[in-house]
Write a structure and sequence with these properties.
The chain is an alpha/beta fold. It is built from 10 helices and 31 strands.
Length: about 475
Amino acid sequence: MFTKLAKPNKFNEGAPKINAAPIFGASPCKEILYKIPVTGERPMIFTADLPQGLTISENGIIAGKTDAGRYEVAVCAENRLGKCQKHILFVIEDGAVCQTPLMGWTSWNAFRDKINHDVILSAAKALVDTGLSEYGYRFVNIDSDWQGVYGGKYNAIMPNENFPDMQKLCSDIHALGLKCGIYSTPMLKAWGCGTSLPGCTRGDMDMEYRTSYFGIGTEHFEQNNVDQWTEWGFDYLKYDWRPCDIKNADLMKQCLKKSSRDFAFCVTVDAEYDNRDYWKENCTSWRENHDSDDVWEILCEVCFGADRWLEHASLGHYFDLDMLETGVCNSNKCRLTEDEQLVGYTARVIFPSPIQISCDLNKLSEFDIAMLCNEEVIAVNQDALGLGAIPTFEKKTVDEHRNLQTYVKIYEKKLADGKKAVAIFNLGNTAEEITIEAEARVRDLWAKETLSSDDGKITISMHPHTVRLLKL
């Protein structure tokens, strides 16, 4: 590979280092579950100055319920080699979940329909065993193909035979300090590998939505399903249909708001730009793009065809560039080069977008760990301002046959510490030299190196399909 990538530290060695985002959100009087992400040798002692109603376990898991407010929480981790303290702003307000972009794992690209209780729980345990959870990856999301038929206590969608006890699965994931998500749709039939996967509506097709891919029913069961998901213990919903409309999104949103649990709410896959004011005020995240895939052209389309959404990011509300293209997916090794995978990850970081891994976590390579566990890079995505990046430069040329030659894009993102992150992407097929105005010292975040400049400029040589992420 051409991009210099720092080797990851071993997550369970050395003095403590807290890798938490500087801001955390939850709703008042709803159950909070927050695992302090910290690397370092175990055993470790955790302490925190918490608002009333919250406690911290010996494993660094904060739980409980508290009243509305904004609390400056000092958390501390200490082992035999040292001590680390960090202040985190706890925003306890209605709808404050996921103040920074969601980070975690999801099942679709990794396993498609080959999912069951053990596969999902194994992924959750792998987030812990690999150290990924100590860098902020805390959601374990089940995509489609969990569904069976309607029934049960709430007359809701029951799981198929591969998920004999959803409540226990959620409980086991929560015991690890992680959160869990589920998938559904307002359509009569959900996307997936099954032939008859039910959605949250039933009955005859509602002719108002006859253009919907599988149709939306006239009988609505949103509340039934939310009541069931609440009892099971889920924390996130991916709600998937095309085209996404405000009416059906809001029917689900209102049910989630009434739940006794906090739900992150992702609307996908076609949240149209004309409805942007609704999405950016009511959704944790939303998509208007194709599913990601480990094909360079698709990566570029998903990650660099959404610039109009950049200005609409804010704390708790983010456009979603879909699942990462990395690792072993559906038993196949990623077809992208390592540099191209870094391009995809950096796009999510700078945008900023939720970061959802979707590969077999038990088959991660050294490169995968180095990319996924760079705390300096993650900090740009998890910045406390929650601002979208600004595109500052684009150069694109084609030859006489309309084949792509030059394609350079540069984005800047303002950070809470008064500095800025700059992502330089060479997406074309020619080598490029990029010169940027810079202070005397610039941090190369992927390499974890400081660059020096004597004349206020830095010139970077870049191979095709590569990226540099700098902090100025």
